[in-house]
Design a protein that fits this description.
Elements lengths: L5 H37 L9 H33 L15 H20 L22 H19 L12 H4 L16 H14 L6 H37 L1
Helix pairs in contact: 1-2, 4-6, 4-7, 6-7
Length: 250
Amino acid sequence: MRSPSSKALRWISQACYALLVVILGCFFAISCVALLEQAVRTLPNASWTNNWDAFSIGASYFLLLFLSIAFCIKRRIAVRRRLQRVSKACDGLSTSDVPRPVHEYISQEFARSCLVSFECQPRGILHPGLGRPGTEHSGIPFRRTLLDTIVDIDARAHLIIPSHPPLKPHARMLHHFRFILPLLPKDEDGLTDLHYYDSAVQLARTSHREPKENEFLIGLQAANEIRRILDECRIAMLEESRIQLDTCSA
């Protein structure tokens, strides 16, 4: 069941207050008229002339009405002044702002809330395919991050080799980036970063399970190394082109 909004609740509260004021005013007027009528009927001549009872009743009701209105106005002005003294900025409460028991209770509740929030933080939780909380790769999806590096490396490869073949959805990385393979150094096993990157991408593409953190780190490190080498080649090509232009202009 949908609860009413704050605006509807405020309107209902104001309507109930106005209805209560109207009902009290009706009872006030009815009682005043009834007492005045009784004061007139009790006199022998049934007249308003020299009717001190009617005068005292009317004066009492008038004084009651005046005092009630004055009390309401005074209360409204006092509330408005108190609200105007409330600071609009978010200031911390000190012991001089509220009574000491209230300040201690607020401090205890704040400390308790902080402890509960701290204890509720996840620790040592490992979700398959996501980085562990508190690590450098916290919350990073391994599969999506590895696959996103393909487009970036392909764009860098096209800057160096304009005739580089277009990217196909299911092409092996070893086959697609075969033209940049001579640029990559080999390790003691005779493998380049492209071989490790191809294995990580194939695992992210075809495996039913999510990549593990060590597999993701191997693939990401290989991708970063490939991008670094391609950037260095790009800078070297630009520098060589600049030297050739300077030589031709000279």
